[in-house]
Write a structure and sequence with these properties.
Elements lengths: L4 H14 L4 H9 L4 H5 L7 E2 L4 E4 L8 E4 L5 H5 L10 E4 L2 E4 L3 H12 L13 H12 L4 H8 L6 H4 L4 H20 L9
Antiparallel strand pairs: 1-2, 2-3, 4-5
Helix pairs in contact: 1-5, 2-6
């Protein structure tokens, strides 16, 4: 399942309005391939390691421990988790912090509202965030070996999870070609390239 940037923005807009407590976990899952319920919902603050740059997942689906990188855009969120809150992703109810055990329901409510006028969102599931994250990392050139480590795969499954539209693939190729031409045209005064 692929979404356009407009569809992603619409989904995030509805989440921000309707259920802002799930916005951080959804943003994280858009950037880093994760299993919401087995890896993140019950993740605790003490799993945040190396100056808040990685989240340690003690047991992945394949039984191994894995590390999920913290995107720079999420650093402020992780640094702002309140003292006394044990959860990486949480909701505050009556002054107490709780894990997002209602994530699936909250996501569905927001997805249905966001789908009005955006038909691709009508069948979008929370697990599809994992597909979007894998596709984004592939488009940004992350080597397969690193993608496998982040996802917790013992063998390459990018062909299953990577859903890049033909248009996105073509746009990516053109942007890379433009970047290569730009770098090639930058030279020093003696005519050699840097």
């Amino acid at each position: 399942m692929t979404l356009t940037q407009e569809e992603v923005d619409r989904l995030l807009e509805v989440i921000q309005k309707e259920r802002p407590d799930i916005l951080p976990i959804v943003r994280f899952m858009l950037a880093i391939p994760c299993r919401a319920f087995s890896e993140l919902v019950n993740a605790k603050v003490d799993q945040l390691q190396d100056n808040n740059t990685v989240i340690f997942i003690p047991t992945s689906k394949n039984g191994d421990s894995i590390f999920k990188p913290v995107p720079l855009a999420m650093a402020d969120y992780f640094n702002s988790i309140p003292n006394g809150c044990p959860w990486l992703f949480y909701q505050k109810v009556d002054g107490e912090y709780h894990p997002l055990t209602n994530l699936r329901h909250a996501f569905e409510v927001c997805r249905k509202k966001a789908a009005v006028g955006f038909p691709n969102l009508s069948t979008f599931r929370i697990h599809d965030l994992r597909h979007l994250a894998v596709s984004g990392l592939v488009l940004h050139g992350l080597p397969v070996q690193l993608l496998m480590k982040i996802c917790g795969w013992k063998k390459d499954q990018s062909h299953i999870y990577c859903n890049i539209s033909q248009k996105s693939g073509a746009e990516y190729f053109l942007s890379m070609e433009k970047e290569a031409l730009k770098l090639a045209s930058q030279g020093t005064t003696d005519g050699t390239t840097k």
